[in-house]
Amino acid sequence: MRNFWKKLCWCLPLLALVLGVLAPQGAEARQAELNYFTSEKTEVDGQEGWRIEIGVNRDDVKYEVKEKSVLKKEVVLDIANTARGKLAQHIKQTGPLVSDVQIDELQTDGDRHTQVRCTIRPEAGDVAYRVTPLPADRRARKPFRLALDIYQKPTSAPAGSVGDVSGHTIVLDAGHGGSDTGAVGPSGVTEASVTLAVTQDLRDILQNSGARVVMTRDKDVDVYGPNASAHDELQARVDVGARVPSAEVFLSIHCNAFSNPGAHGMETYYYPGSSAGLRFATILNEELEKAGGRTNRGVKSANFYVIHHSPMPASLVELAFVTNPDEERLLADEDYQKNLALALAKGIARFFGGR
Predict the structure, then answer these.
(1) Which H or E element spans position 47?
(2) Going by DSSP bridges, is the β-strand pair 169-174/249-256 parallel, antiparallel, or unpaired?
(3) Predicted local confidence at residue 17, as pLDDT
(4) Pairing, β 127-134 against β 144-152
(5) What are 276-293's pLDDT values in tens digits?
(6) CA neighbor of 193 nearest in space, from 253, 125, 151
(7) pLDDT over threshold 50, residue 241
(8) Cα dist. 59→145, 184, 262 in Å?
(9) Mean pLDDT of 216-236
């Protein structure tokens, strides 16, 4: 019996070593799998489009999308650390822009990944594309999905005008700027740069529609001055609108941030007790939800300085979380910025139109 235990003690380390070699390690152990596919017609910024949804059994996958034109034009969605699962390798498409989808499982430098290759029809011409992560919908039996929208590239900025704003005066406040970058995303995208880009796009749409637009800032600067106190900077933004007697609404545009990079979604705010502010924030929330595809965190009241002290109906919008890697990518995308600006313009038009 003593010899038996001696042999067992000698064999156990060897067994552990063998099991360690055979067991999946690191990325392999955490590999995700594709588990859902659907495609359908869609519309993006008034342009004809085709949406492809790829389901994944985890919601923390990394991906990138790019366009390739060698023998044929393709839009390729590359999803890291994933296997194709039970999805077919080749899926014929009936849409006007995409002729077929090829899903390849590849091995590059020891890392397995899948490529969803969408072949663009020659007659489709120039196309644009974007990816929107969609949360799992248990009621509809849909997993977490990556929605790839491929659509005809607009010849100009999307929807250059909206109705019901002609003759109105609107104050737009691009959050942060100058010495204050605001929140910073994992790859370095700053809140101040995103809010300025969206605000400039929104200004152009409103001006093309006949509105007068007052900007608290139209470049990367402090409104009060460099290194001002928070009170002075915020009051300076309020003062920009207060100095314009005809100003009717105040909209402050921001990006959200949180220590947990998984936090996601958009939300809109109004000052408690302001019925006009509540209506304004509610309409903006509805339009952002339609256009952005982000999780809707709701309409909320808050004592934010600029909406508290603004002498007119006011709202502050949080477009998405710049600290979330997926939403950071969207916020940095020019087409997505224009899409958000158009949604806000539609909301402002609805507010003035009584709808």
Answers:
(1) strand 47-56
(2) parallel
(3) 46
(4) antiparallel
(5) 999 999 999 999 998 876
(6) 253
(7) yes
(8) 8, 22, 9
(9) 92
Residue bearing tokens 């207060």: 242
Residue listed under structure tokens 């400039």: 200
CA gap 54, 134 in Å, rounded: 10
**pTM above threshold 0.85:** no
Q: Would you say 98 and 121 are in contact if contact means Cβ atoms under 8 Å apart?
A: yes
Q: Which two tokens stand for residue 81?
A: 């650390």
- Asked whether the CA dihedral 174, 149, 155, 206 is positive or negative, the reply is negative
Q: How confident is the model at residue 320 (pLDDT cuts 50, 70, 90)?
A: very high
Alpha-carbon torsion (266, 270, 271, 273), positive or negative: negative
- Find the length of the chain: 355
DSSP state of 137: B
CA distance 221 to 179: 7
Kindly report the number of other CB atoms within 10 A of residue 73's CB atom: 17
Rounded CA separation 329/321 (Å): 10
Tell me, what's the pLDDT at 132?
A: 80
**Residue reference for tokens 């949406």:** 51
Backbone angles phi, psi at 214, to 5 degrees: -110, 125
The confidence band for 22, taking pLDDT boundaries of 50, 70 and 90, is: very low
For 97: left if phi > 0, alpha if psi spans -120 to 50, otherwise beta; the answer is alpha
